Amino acid sequence: MRKPADCDSMAHVRAEIDRLDETLVALFAERAAYIDRAAQIKSRVDLPARIEDRVEEVVANVRRHAEAAGLPPDLIEKFWRRLIDWSIAREETHLGPDSLRKG
């Protein structure tokens, strides 16, 4: 693992980006496992996939982390909202669509 400043060629930069991409995919897979577990628990306690208060809590947390890391919070929020939508759709494969759940 090289620090960005220690990369003296595009090959070094690309190798580190590829390493990080592999790590990110593994982290997304881990996150998906928690999403699947959440769907199992929600099914038992009759909760919908989308819980708007939680969505906004996650977005606020991510914006705060982005700011602390020096990343643009608006861009990170847009990316994360897509991830949240994907996660909710994944939960709905277990729970059924929220629109069909009893209210």
Automatic annotation (TrEMBL):
Protein name: chorismate mutase
Record-listed E.C. numbers: 5.4.99.5
Keyword Isomerase part of the UniProt annotation: yes
SUPFAM superfamilies the record matches: Chorismate mutase II
Residues of the Chorismate mutase domain: 4-95
Naturally occurring in which organism (per UniProt): Gemmobacter denitrificans
Keywords per UniProt: Isomerase
SMART domains in the record: CM_2 (SM00830)
InterPro entries: Chorismate_II_sf, Chorismate_mutase-related, CM_dom_sf, CM_II_prokaryot, Isochorismate_pyruvate-lyase
Keyword Isomerase found: yes
Signal peptide location: none
EC primary class: isomerase
Biological classification of the source: Bacteria, Pseudomonadati, Pseudomonadota, Alphaproteobacteria, Rhodobacterales
